[in-house]
């Protein structure tokens, strides 16, 4: 029989935390990881900032230095899996996109070296590297918490007078467009350390504005284990 009854138990978290510099992404990720419980590994691209919070939780850290090639992220993720960590914090995933040696940098160099400046053709070589990293995140047997820097996002549209105008529409993560679709939950943290939930497949935080604590991780852990009381009311 190819089919079985669907049930959520011992699921693995896929959580993204986005925000500007100083919003508390690293701090928040550690609080959630502590609440989840288990052995924590952090992949730090932020020049050692991950070491600043050793008083919050017990965790191990490795520094990912330039070049921020997505294949290095894959390597460290697999090393953490093999070492028996339960939670992997990637701080931050933005460097794999726009950091030195990241996807955009690889795209530019590939375009110039292989395709005589044809940037469109160069994506054929670079996109698979990005996709492989995303697939590594999704396939990991560990809980994944990835932080991403935010940037102001704009759209071009036509106004009521028929003129083209540029409108500010909020903040977007510094990563490939659509990266948020790969995560079950996306927290946007502002400068006051308050969270707006931009995506929530758990339905635990719908419409809430809150500050992340270890209890946030505990609530997520209960949901992942299928223990939330709210499930009985659906």
Structure commentary:
The chain is 31% helix and 26% strand. The chain has six helices and nine strands; from the N terminus they run E-H-E-E-H-E-H-H-H-E-E-E-E-E-H. The protein has 234 residues and is of the alpha/beta class. The longest helix has 21 residues. Strands 1, 2, 3, 4, 5, 6, 7, 8 and 9 form a nine-stranded mixed β-sheet that branches. The mean pLDDT is 90.
Task: Give the gist of this structure.
With 234 residues, the protein is an alpha/beta fold. Helix content is 31%, strand content 26%. Strands 1, 2, 3, 4, 5, 6, 7, 8 and 9 form a 9-stranded mixed beta sheet that branches.
Task: Please supply descriptive tags for the structure shown above.
234 residues, alpha/beta, nine-stranded mixed β-sheet, 6 helices, 31% helix, globular
Layout of secondary structure:
Layout: E1 14-19, H1 25-36, E2 40-44, E3 59-63, H2 70-82, E4 87-91, H3 95-98, H4 103-114, H5 119-139, E5 143-158, E6 164-173, E7 185-189, E8 195-200, E9 209-210, H6 214-224
Parallel strand pairs: 1-5, 1-7, 2-3, 2-4, 4-5
Antiparallel strand pairs: 5-6, 7-8, 8-9
pLDDT averaged residue by residue:
90
Distance between the termini: 28 Å
Tell me about the largest β-sheet.
Answer: 9 strands, mixed
Order of helices and strands: EHEEHEHHHEEEEEH
Shape: globular
| Estimated structural class | alpha/beta
How many helices? The count is 6
Detail the poorly predicted runs.
Answer: none
Binned strand content: 25-35%
How many whole angstroms does the radius of gyration measure?
A: 19 Å
Number of strands: 9
What portion of residues is helical? 25-40%
